[in-house]
Amino acid sequence: MSLSQDILFEAQPYLIANEKHPFVQGIITGKLTPEQLSYYDEQDIAFEYNEVGVINALINYSTNTNQALLFHKRQDLQLHMLHDWLAREPESMPHNWQTLKQTTIQPINQMYRQHMVATIQTHSVLQILPSFAAGEWMYIELGKWMRNQTRVQEQPFKDFLNIGGGDFEGPNGYIQKFFDIIDHEAESATKREQEQAKQTFLKSCLLEWYFWDAAYKQITWNDWKDIALNGKDNAML
Questions:
Q1: Where are the domains positioned within the chain?
Q2: Where are the transmembrane segments (predicted)?
Q3: Can you tell me the distance from the alpha carbon of 199 to that of 147, in angstroms, rounded to the nearest whole number?
Q4: pTM (predicted TM-score)
Q5: What value, to the nearest 5°, has the Cα angle with vertex 14 and ends 13 and 19?
Q6: Are 127 and 200 within 8 A, CB to CB?
Q7: What pLDDT, in 10s, does the model give residues 136-178?
């Protein structure tokens, strides 16, 4: 069994858990509040901005030209996506690079971002890529699953988790190419390094669930502060 096959086998329960989360179910039914959607939108675009640095690291630490070219292509897609997303945002949300950098990063988002950034210090594609590829894989799999669900067709719900297609899916899509790179790098890695890469992928899958959860409950640093300083029993957490 290749490392990617092992990773995907152990990632299945995380995928099912993400499918069952109330926020994801709310995308299907259209039963999410404007406040929940706004929280998610603001935190997610800031998260996507953080991924620019992670992709840069993948380019820098690529072990061959084909890897570097693939990551460079994915970076170009990332930057164009962010540019178009910011252009659509209202004034109350991040709408340019300056306001995006000033976005308040809430607890779970910060934990997830730091989890990914921490892999950069390894200088290893095998360790950095799983932290990023897991979220890509999770969103694509959720999108594929949603195609078989009866979901509302009103915006903004209609376009949620609808980022599949030729760029990401299939034998020549980003997801498969990322797993091919992981398997290639694993060939010269120790068992410990392979296990570390797998656990990094699974942790990202877990944090994807908590990202939905934070948006559903709109968890902020003030919620954490109230529990710590005022002893409030906040069921959201």
A1: 3-230
A2: none
A3: 29
A4: 0.94
A5: 95
A6: yes
A7: 999 999 999 998 998 888 888 888 887 655 789 989 999 999 9
